[in-house]
Amino acid sequence: MSVKSASPSWHFAGAVAAWLVPGAGHLLLGQKGRAAILLASIGMLWLGGFFIGGVGVFDRKGHPIWFMGQMLIAPSVVVEGYHRSLQGPDGLPPRPDDTAGPYQPSYGHVHEQGVLYTSLAGMLNLLAIMDVLYRDPADPRHRGYRTRGLEPTERDAGPDTGGGVA
After folding, report:
1. Are 50 and 57 in contact (CB under 8 A)?
2. For residue 135, which of 15, 38, 45, 32 has the smallest C-alpha distance?
3. Region at 143 (left for phi over 0; alpha for psi -120 to 50; beta for the rest)
4. Which helix (H) or strand (E) holds 42?
5. What pTM does this model have?
6. Could you give the C-alpha distances from 112 to 26, 43, 97, 107, 166, in angstroms and in order?
7. Residues 18-62: pLDDT tens digits?
8. Using an 8 Å Cβ cutoff, are 126 and 72 in contact?
């Protein structure tokens, strides 16, 4: 009796979807619960950093190392492009005393926290992208109850612990 195993596969479309929207790659693979958790956790971390520090936290020239983490979520690249369009002709953000500028950048700890949150969200999204990219269908951790051969009544009953003292 031989067991036919599925061949491992690469999910490039899922990885691109996960880069565009956290959790979308897992949603494409049919893992709705995991997709919802990733969207909520990574998305809230990214949005929290964006709301704390504003559009100025996405600055490729100002802090390129942190931007490498931020760009692991696609909207960061779009927001950084918008941030560059708001800067003056000299390429610098408006000064704090300039009230005529298109926006007021954040400074100090608020700016640093926004950069940190958005970068951490990007690095967490990298882990989700790597998780989606290579999924082995033969791995039982990646399959549902139906593919493991358990019927719903067996699943609901749980493991048999015996209940007695040996």
Report:
1. yes
2. 15
3. beta
4. helix 32-53
5. 0.71
6. 31, 19, 20, 8, 60
7. 999 999 999 998 889 999 999 999 999 999 999 998 888 888 888
8. yes
- Domain spans of the chain? 10-93+103-157
Candidates 130, 122, 42, 111; CA nearest to 74 is: 122
Task: Report the SS3 class of residue 9.
Answer: strand
CA distance 30 to 27: 5
What's the rounded Cα separation, in Å, for the pair 163 and 106?
A: 61
Residue 130: both structure tokens together: 């790597």
Residue 83 to residues 43, 66, 92, 106: CA-CA distances in angstroms? 20, 15, 11, 13
Positions in the chain whose pLDDT score sits under 50: 1, 145-152, 155, 166
Q: What is the DSSP letter of 91?
A: S
8 A C-beta contact, residue 7 and residue 134:
no
* CA distance linking residue 126 with residue 24, whole number of Å: 13
Longest CA span, the chain: 81
